[in-house]
Amino acid sequence: MKLLVTLEKDETGMIVAECPSIPGCVSQGRTETEALVNIREAIAGCLEARKANNMPLTVDVREIEVPA
To answer: How many domains does the chain have?
Structure first.
């Protein structure tokens, strides 16, 4: 399964990783590499929890265009 993730540096310098198609699935790391490793682990846990609770594994994420 391929999922999009976002990476953003917070005010403390940590890299915050989030998976928009899984509500609440967020992790972090000191480096991008660490954040990506951690978000993969978080995604696996979130998918397992959603499956166990008979929830859809993901929600639809759409790309739209807006004027800049």
So the answer is: 1
Work out the burial of residue 13: count CB atoms within 10 Å of its CB; fewer than 13 is exposed, 13-18 middle, 19 or more buried: exposed
Q: Which domain holds residue 28?
A: 6-52
Task: Enumerate the β-bridge partners of residue 26.
Answer: 18
Instruction: Give the C-alpha separation, 60 to 53, whole Å.
Output: 19
Between CA 25 and CA 10 the distance in angstroms is 16
Instruction: Confirm whether pTM is higher than 0.85.
Output: yes
- Please give the pLDDT value at position 26: 98
* 58 occurs within a structural domain: no
